[in-house]
Amino acid sequence: MMRKMLIVDHSRCTGCGLCELVCSVNKGGAANPAAARITVVKWEPICVDTPMVCQQCDTAPCATVCPVQALSRDEELGRVTINYERCIGCRFCIAVCPFGAMGFDPVTRKVIKCDLCDGDPVCVKFCEPRAIQYVDASAANAAKSRQAAEKLADLMKRVAVATSA
Prior knowledge:
The chain is an alpha+beta fold. It has helices spanning 18-28, 61-65, 92-96, 122-126, 137-164; strands at 4-8, 38-43, 48-53, 71-74, 79-82, 103-105, 110-112, 132-136. It has one domain: Alpha-Beta Plaits.
């Protein structure tokens, strides 16, 4: 199976929060964005909204620090999963996640994170502006390379204009 991943195009995100809402309903059975496995971060000074979601790191810091090995890699879907029977709610994984993508459920006293909805992410289906997409990892890497090249080209144009003035 080809590995897939969630990618986010923050330039398309409207900040509507529907991804949080459908995630919370899908995973928790109630409309409670605080219980979602995705969080829309609003950066008001620059008017940017960005859905933050688990990056399913290859070398996942969350799994590395877990004292009871409750987090492990599911190679089939390329994701990090939580064994809730093992989780003791220590939150070490939350502390080390570089993306702030892990949460804590105060009711169950367990950590929560995106599990890619078993390969069919609900957030993607409901994201009208298509800011969140579930794509082949190789396609995601190609898109990131293109974006980096576009940013570099734009920077070079600005430098050329500034030096010719």
